[in-house]
Amino acid sequence: MPRESLRSRPNLPICTHVSEDDRRPPGRLGQQFDPVLTAARSGAGWAAGRLWASVGAQVAGYLRAQGAPEPDDLASEVFIGVLRSLGSFSGDEERFRSWVFTIAHRRLVDERRRLARRPPASPLDDDERGGASPSASAEDEALRRLSEERVRRVCERLVPDQRDVLLLRLVGGLTSEEVAAALGKSPGAVRALQRRGVASLRRIFEQEGVPR
Amino acid sequence: MSDAVDYDPEMIRRTHIDDAAFEAHLTGNDAGELPALAAFAEDLRTMTSGPGPAPSAQLAAMIAEGFSTEQGDLPATAASNVPGPAPQAAGLPKWRKRKMIEFIAGLSVAAKAAFGISMAAASVTAAGAAGALPEPAQNAVSAAVEAVTPFSFPDKASDKADFGGRVSTDATDGGVDGRTVAEDAKNNGEDDGDGDGSRPAAPGQNGLDQANTTPAAGHVPSSVPAGKPATAGTQGSTGTDTAAGTPAAGHLPEAVPAGPPSETPPSDAGSESSTGTDTATQTPAADYVPSSIPAGPPAGRP
Predict the structure, then answer these.
(1) Which terminal CB of chain B, N or C, has fewer other CB atoms within 10 Å?
(2) Distance between CA atoms of B56 and B64, rounded to whole angstroms?
(3) Within a domain: B77
């Protein structure tokens, strides 16, 4: 059933069933990952482009959901660091994603510290963000903006630690152990934050999840 | 912005949250057990779907032209574009700089000029003492300093010129150590590379090559017959044995007379049972050796 029709029907959760393919983060390289990674390690630009295409949107989305002021530019900076450090990485595609999101989170923390010392000159409005892709249809773009707005509102009400855990798990696809390593916490603490984060989501949705 | 259709509160209330349910949702095996989480995740998925953002100019250049991963976190920069070292951050503390400026500003014009000349002279003198100036400037500074001070600067050229004289003086005074002379000559000739023949032969250069660089080059034969390589002789062989293997073997005597014994007789330490008196009776002073020596105190007594 198309997503639009689900959204148009009242009193029905939007995710009654999502297939495994739909849940898999988009842009996965699958079996092509190893040769692409090998080429990227040797400095091949085309391979860098493939890797960027496979995770760039998720990294930018993660940074946007975290409230980064210029998420697309920050995502590019993250990926430049990733490309330059490829020589130190080894592992499969899952580990690569985990590694990229760990770098993205740490870069985000650095950016927040920098902005705390020197606030940004002026916030950009939606049109200036350039989030709309030239190839996206107007309908897809509208849906994306709606989703982005809902996510932003929910994330603003989450405790930062809970938000970090939920976003790294849901957007980055990191395991509890990988999130723990990225955040410098124990896996048990991450699971506790995850439970409390989901409980917070429930409360948020109960209180204002039916906003009109 | 959002409306009521997004999240169903009834469904949310029926949710029980545990780790297994969360993992089931992430792996796609839940059946709406966590609708709040599912709705949130769906919004995240929608937000991050589609093509990625346009890369920045720097990232686009890396994708278009390739990049280097060998420098870790350092940017890939061509060697010719590497900037020079940053200016030294450390220096005089600000308070000392300020005091220095105040001191200089307080001087009269004549004092400032004298101060500047003094600083310049001190700098040139220090450079001259370190031998860091070019040859003509070094000679000028050396001459000037030696004329007005009791100090003398080392001069590499005159030092080399005096080398032969020093060897000659040493030889007339009482002899020279050949190894020391050789070491000094090597050190003198190693560093200049001026083609004056003072350098040792380069690797691969034989005696003929070296001879052809001397004034007697016109008399150097084109080749020298190879000789038999010298042998050190075996441990049990004598000098006669070794000489018999040379071209002069036909002129060797039958036997070589034994040489005179060493002028210094081997010291006789005395046998284990001999006494000092026994040993003394074998010397030219045997007539003066007493027949017995009274025993001393036993060892170990204080």
Answers:
(1) C
(2) 12
(3) no
Interface test with chain A among B25, B30, B63, by most A beta carbons within 10 Å? B63
User: Cβ–Cβ of B1/A149 closer than 8 Å?
Assistant: yes
Q: DSSP assignment, residue B265?
A: P
In a domain, B114, yes or no: yes
- Determine the structural domain holding residue B143 and report its residue range: 106-151
Is residue B14 in some structural domain?
yes
Q: How close A110 comes to chain B (CA, Å)? A: 16
B229 secondary structure, DSSP code: P
Report the range out of A34-38, A117-121, A173-177, B121-125 with the highest average pLDDT: A34-38
Whether this model's ipTM surpasses 0.95 comes out as no
Amino acid at B124: V
Chain A residues in contact with B52 by the CB 8 A cut-off are 27, 52-53, 55-57, 60, 75
Domain CATH number, residue A160: 1.10.10.10
Confidence check: pLDDT of A183 > 50: yes
A4 close to B (CB below 8 A)? no
State the total domains in chain B. 3
SS3 annotation, B52-115 = CCCCCHHHHHHHHHCCCCCCCCCCCCCHHHCCCCCCCCCCCCHHHHHHHHHHHHCCCHHHHHHH
Q: Are A151 and A209 found together in one domain?
A: yes
| pLDDT tens, position by position, B72-104 | 543 333 333 334 344 444 555 666 667 777 777
User: Do A115 and A148 belong to one domain?
Assistant: no
Interface of B with A in 98-157 (CB under 8 A): none
Residue of A147, A192, A75, A46 whose CA lies nearest to B2: A147
Cross-chain CB nearest to B52 (options A10, A43, A52): A52
Which residue type occupies A97?
A: R
Across chain A, mean pLDDT equals 79
B118: left (phi over 0), alpha (psi -120 to 50) or beta: alpha
Task: Calculate mean pLDDT across residues B228-252.
Answer: 57
The CATH number of whichever domain residue A72 belongs to comes to 1.10.1740.10
What's the domain count of chain A? 2
Domain presence at residue B17 = yes
Token output for A72 = 């697309």
Q: By percentage, how much of chain A surpasses pLDDT 70?
A: 76
pLDDT of residue A100: 94
* Neighbour-count burial of A53, counting CB atoms closer than 10 A to its CB (0-12 exposed, 13-18 middle, 19+ buried): middle
Q: Find the CB nearest B42 among A15, A131, A148.
A: A15
The rounded distance, in Å, linking the Cα atoms of B70 and B85 is 21
